[in-house]
Amino acid sequence: MTLERLLARKPVADIVATADPRIPKVLGPVSITAMGIGAIIGGGIFIFTGTVAALNAGPAIVLSFVLAAIACAFVGLCYAELSTFLPVSGSTYTYTYATLGEFAAWIIGWDLILEYAIGAAAVAVGWSGYFTSLLTALGVALPARLTAATGQTVTLADGTTAAAIVNLPAAAIVVSITVLLVGGTKESARLNNIMVGVKLAVVLAFVALGAFYVKPTNWQPFIPDNTGTFGAYGPSGILRGAAIVFITYVGFDAVSNCAQEARRPQHDMPIGILGSLAISTFLYIAVAAVLTGLVPYRELNVADPVVVGLRAVGLGWFSLAIDFGALIGITTVILVLLYGQSRIFATMAADGLLPPVVARVHPRLGTPWISQIVIGIVVAAVAAVAPIGMLAELVGVGTLFAFVLVCGAVIYLRRLEPHAHRPFRVPYMPLIPVLGIVLCLVLIAGMTPWTWVRLAVWLAVGFAIYFTYSRHHSRLRTPQRTAMQSL
Q1: What's the burial of 73, exposed, middle or buried (CB within 10 Å: 0-12/13-18/19+)?
Q2: Distances from the Cα of 42 to the Cαs of 322, 328, 352, in angstroms?
Q3: Contact present, 72 and 253 (Cβ < 8 Å)
Q4: pLDDT: which is higher, 330 or 407
Q5: Is the model's pLDDT at 201 over the cut of 80?
Q6: Does the pLDDT at position 90 exceed 60?
Q7: From CA 66, how far away is CA 397, in angstroms rounded?
Q8: Given this model, what pLDDT does residue 485 score?
Q9: In this structure, are residues 409 and 96 in contact, taking their beta carbons and an 8 Å threshold?
Q10: CA–CA separation, 297 vs 49, rounded Å?
Q11: At what angle do helices 265-294 and 185-210 cross, to 10 degrees?
Q12: What is the rounded CA–CA span in Å between residue 384 and residue 120?
């Protein structure tokens, strides 16, 4: 295995030419923007806002959201250029293949599992918690041993404790969404649009109602003094808070997977990526400002901070709607993440880096059904047995790692093919991509060292798969075999 083979690139023209003509172009700018909002606005807006305010940033959590949003905006501009320059599925994996070569593309494709598949499993576990809470509020109690991670200690109805068997609601929602996605992209997008509308209505209602009860004194001091520990208030608290709330933005890049199914990718993709990011950032800041204005920030370190805020000002009756909105919000996140992961796996399979059966497109439904089903089964199994904390730790660092490579890909492709037609161009080159890289690295610096250790172990497993299977089956080295021949 020579360095030249590891760095072998897939030409841009070949990447564009491999777009499967059987996949229908059914998504417009509204649906793509809704997909982005569906991925971004989830349960995190109702959870992380309170915990980060209480433990890290205080009322200055709004600055944490702004810092994370700025990093995402720079990266989003890079995604907009690449998704119109290479209007095919595959997201960061495809962009890396065209710039840094096959080995780097495999690494990033493997890394994206942390964002999409593991992220979907983590969100599904969160969905289970909200679902169980909502049923309890309605007087329906599910068996505790069937609603938590395997081995996790739970309290039974008689007050005794026991080890949980499996998280059935988490697995069930993943299976249900998988069935929906296999059925067709257009139908999935239509349902996603409806759920996004409901979710936005609930969030806006909270902001509108809560604004009348805000006490400006709760915003003082706006930036609490640091306690002497890095990340506990002060400027470092804002940084640590940004690294944590960054997870709530995870998923906006999944919009780039819509490029092959967009009716006018050159026009629709930039609108979808940047529009969903702008709308979500506004809502995050609004919720954070209202919530920290309702109650003192130190009281928000609870599982349901928004409900605590509402009850503190006599609006507890609205908490049921909040639970329902959070449930809907999390559902859309799972949908978009499962959608994105299946497209990435199908693209990698078409390149020979995964078994070719994964790339098969259903002749009637027009979806990569094998890939979608495999992802659904694996994610459902993981969500059924693993705790959310274990799953969530890797999502942020994996995503930031991918974002760094996307920004680098824009710089590299501009130099490699400076005269190629680009329907959308990142302004102020190379400043914007460089700032994106720097801000992502700053956010990574706010994470714990153990996160990097876990990432290293994950990548080591990916290396083993590449050198034992993928490099021997790569179609980049056997150009006479096309992806279409394997279907």
Answers
A1: buried
A2: 12, 8, 34
A3: no
A4: 407
A5: yes
A6: no
A7: 19
A8: 36
A9: yes
A10: 10
A11: 30
A12: 12
pTM given for the model? 0.73
Distances (CA, A) of 190 to 14, 29, 32: 32, 13, 11
The token pair that represents 471 in the structure block: 């490099």
CB-neighbour burial class of residue 160 (10 A; exposed 0-12, middle 13-18, buried 19+): exposed
CB of 258 closer than 8 Å to CB of 90: no
What does the block give as tokens for 146?
């069937």
> What's the Cα-to-Cα distance from 251 to each of 36, 120, 178, 255, rounded to whole Å?
7, 10, 17, 8
> When comparing pLDDT for 264 and 418, which is higher?
418
Alpha carbons 90 and 85: distance in angstroms, whole number: 13
Look at residue 168 in the predicted model and tell me its pLDDT.
92
For 24-67, how does the pLDDT look when each residue is reduced to its tens digit (9 = 90+)?
666 778 878 877 777 677 666 766 788 889 888 999 999 999 98
The strand pairing partners of 262, in sequence order, are 27
The CATH number assigned to the domain with range 3-486 reads 1.20.1740.10
> Which residues have CB under 8 Å from 285's CB, separation 6+?
62, 65, 66
Using left for φ > 0, alpha for ψ between -120 and 50, and beta otherwise, residue 413 falls in alpha
Residue whose tokens read 């993440």? 337
Q: Where are the beta strands (DSSP E) in 282-325?
A: none
Asked whether the beta carbons of 118 and 395 are under 8 A apart, the reply is yes
Q: What are phi and psi of 74, to 5 degrees?
A: -60, -45
Please answer whether residues 159 and 370 qualify as being in contact, where contact means their C-beta atoms are separated by less than 8 angstroms: no
- Three-state DSSP at 152 gives coil
How far apart (Å, rounded) are the C-alpha atoms in residues 97 and 475? 13
What are the two backbone dihedrals, phi and then psi, of residue 365, each rounded to the nearest 5 degrees? Answer: -85, -20
Read off the pLDDT band of 464 (50, 70, 90): very high
Q: What is the DSSP letter of 28?
A: -
Nearest to 61 by CA among 246, 277, 192: 246
Separation of alpha carbons 409 and 121, rounded Å: 29
Calculate ∠ Cα 264-361-367, nearest 5°: 55
